[in-house]
Specification:
alpha+beta, Glutaredoxin, 11% strand, globular, disordered N terminus, binds FE2/S2 (inorganic) cluster
Length: 164
């Protein structure tokens, strides 16, 4: 684990050394990624000097935390104040309509998971949506159909590559 990779994780940087930091950092990771990947838990363990087993005790105690990605694409719509005021509710409606999916659910084919999250830290780009770590800023509802089509295409290509 390098010093650089610790610095790069915003959730760790923000909560390291603070009271209740472990839970808050885990919450933030889940908000950003839709679940807490094992690599992130390991990174947190090193950065905060907390045994990995203790982190997993917390992760498995609370039903809220997910250990597996709930969909191949986790769509996180920021509903923090800035994004809310700049139209996040319209984005929620449009994603729900296009995917025929309620917030908090995953599509039956396992491709998409739709969730709302708190401020993701780039309010200047509001309204913001993050999909698998890729940030879409100043997003308009009219762009959503195209974005979903791009992700479907990406997965189709990945599947085709695996089949060969
Ligand atoms: S409120 Fe959405 S990025 Fe801050």
């Amino acid at each position: 684990m390098t010093e650089k990779s610790v610095k790069e994780n915003p959730a760790i940087k923000k909560w390291k050394g603070k009271r209740g930091a472990l839970i808050m950092a885990l919450h933030e990771m889940q908000d950003q990624m839709g679940y807490v990947p094992r690599e992130s838990a390991m990174e947190l363990s090193v950065a905060m000097d907390i045994p990995l087993a203790q982190i997993y005790e917390v992760l498995t105690f609370y039903n809220y935390f997910k250990l597996e990605a709930p969909g191949r694409a986790v769509i996180s719509i920021c509903t923090g104040t800035a994004c809310y005021l700049k139209g996040a509710p319209d984005l929620v409606k449009e994603f729900s309509k296009e995917l025929n999916l309620e917030v908090g659910n995953s599509s039956p084919d396992g491709l998409f998971h739709l969730q709302c999250v708190r401020c993701v830290g780039c309010c200047g780009l509001a309204p913001v949506v993050v999909i698998n770590g890729k940030t879409y800023g100043k997003l308009k509802p009219t762009e959503i159909k195209h974005i979903i089509a791009e992700w479907r295409e990406k997965f189709a290509q990945e599947d085709a590559a695996h089949a060969n």
